[in-house]
Design a protein that fits this description.
Bound molecules: zinc ion
Number of strands: 8
Largest sheet: 6 strands, mixed
Strand content: 25-35%
Order of helices and strands: EHHEEEEHEHEHEHH
CATH topology of the largest domain: GTP Cyclohydrolase I, domain 2
CATH superfamily of the largest domain: GTP cyclohydrolase I, C-terminal domain/NADPH-dependent 7-cyano-7-deazaguanine reductase, N-terminal domain
CATH class of the largest domain: Alpha Beta
Distance between the termini: 15 Å
Length: 210
């Protein structure tokens, strides 16, 4: 059993724009025009001092926030090692920030990942990189959880994978639907975590420790 907090500084991924359908300039121009239109539509003056550079700032920000759309999350798991024992591996408290695809607003929180190795294991920080990668696309929390589980399942072919995501959604808390700090919890269980209650319970106990 291995439990480790993930260091966020180690989990940042490169923000190059390889593989994007539009050249960067074209994409920026389209986003800038769209943001300018929104500012105008909500009754703002897009040319006033504070807003003049907002469309280009938003365009450049999306380069970073949404660069996980086009690239392959499996690449972070390519380097694997033969394992020497078959106990559960758990990485908890992996911090993430993503964007809700329903409102284009942030949701953020923590992910816990567990798996039961079959023949291969992966460096622990790589699990956090997969989380970070999949956060950088428009998401819904349920799909975020199972995309993480599926990437680990695809590459490592473990006996089971468990993913638990706990997050606050600004589209809910800023609109008063839920109190600030009210969290949404979703999970994805595969293999033995789905089939065996005891395995699931062991995972849940490990991720609840401080
Ligand atoms: Zn939302």
């Amino acid at each position: 059993m291995t439990t480790t907090p993930a260091n966020r500084d180690e989990t940042r991924i490169e923000t190059t724009m390889n593989g994007q359908p539009d050249p960067t300039d074209t994409r920026h121009a389209r986003i800038e025009a769209a943001v300018r239109e929104i500012l105008d539509a909500v009754g703002e003056d897009p040319d006033r001092d504070g807003l003049r550079d907002t469309p280009s700032r938003v365009a450049r920000m999306y380069d970073e926030l949404l660069d996980g759309h086009e690239n392959d999350p499996d690449k972070h798991l390519e380097v694997t090692f033969e394992h020497v024992h078959d106990e559960m591996v758990v990485v908890r408290n992996i911090q993430f920030h993503s964007m809700c695809e329903h409102h284009l607003m942030p949701f953020f929180g923590t992910v816990a990942v567990g798996y039961l190795p079959d023949e291969r294991i992966v460096g622990l920080s790589k699990l956090a990189r997969v989380v970070e990668h999949l956060a950088r696309r428009l998401q819904v929390q349920e799909r975020f959880a199972y995309q993480i589980a599926d990437a680990i399942g695809r590459v490592l072919e473990p006996a089971g994978v468990a993913v638990m995501v706990e997050a606050e959604h600004l589209c809910m808390t800023m609109r008063g639907v839920k109190k600030p700090g009210g969290n949404v919890v979703t999970s994805a269980m595969r293999g033995l975590f789905r089939q065996r209650a005891a395995t699931r319970a062991e995972f849940l106990t490990l991720i609840q420790g401080q």
